[in-house]
Amino acid sequence: GHKDTLSVSMETMLRHTEAVSRGAQTSLVIGDMPFLSYQTSDADAILNAGRFLSEGKAGGVKLEGGIEMAARIKKITEVGIPVMGHIGLTPQSVNMLGGYKVQGKTDSGAEKIMEDAKTIENSGAFSLVLEGIPAELGTKISRQLKIPTIGIGAGPGCDGQVLVLHDLLGLGGEFS
């Protein structure tokens, strides 16, 4: 019911993750770390990621950001918490991106996203969400990485796909 993902709290995400984990018997559940739960410091990131495993019963966490989050991902994985990265269109940075717009359409933008992808892989992430990037770039990244990619608006060349129910059914009020 929020207008964006920035309003979602750590407590809300923990309770939702816990509910999903209780019902998921054979699926890997990933806790999506909310805005400001990991950006402020390594200590906050580790503590909050750990809460997703201990309280939310998740098998890992997802956080947004490229090169700027590489050291943080490394710190989280060093304490034994699996991390899924997320690059391209990163909803928690939507105000910095100028809105929900496809990223990596220029040569320099595509190079930056490719560099982000390789850096996230090298930081210890076990998989990577590619959101809102051109299909050709999604395919290129997926072919070059050893970790699996999950596309959300990144074309059919990714290793897996996310389809948001509200987008599929047109419940968002506008075309997406």
Which structural class do the helices and strands define? alpha/beta
Number of helical runs? Answer: 7
Order of helices and strands: HEHEHEHHEHEEH
Shape: globular
Low-confidence region ranges: none
Helical amount: 40-55%
- The value of Rg in angstroms is 16 Å
The mean pLDDT is 94
Q: Total number of β-strand segments? A: 6
Main pleated sheet: 6 strands, parallel
Distance between the termini: 18 Å
Strand content: 5-15%
Strand order of the largest sheet: 1-2-3-4-5-6
Overview of this structure, please?
The chain is of the alpha/beta class. The protein has 7 helices and 6 strands. The protein has helices at residues 10-23, 42-54, 70-78, 94-97, 107-122, 135-144, 165-169, and strands at residues 30-32, 60-64, 83-88, 127-131, 149-152, 160-161. Strands 1-2-3-4-5-6 form a 6-stranded parallel β-sheet. The protein is globular, with a radius of gyration of 16 Å.
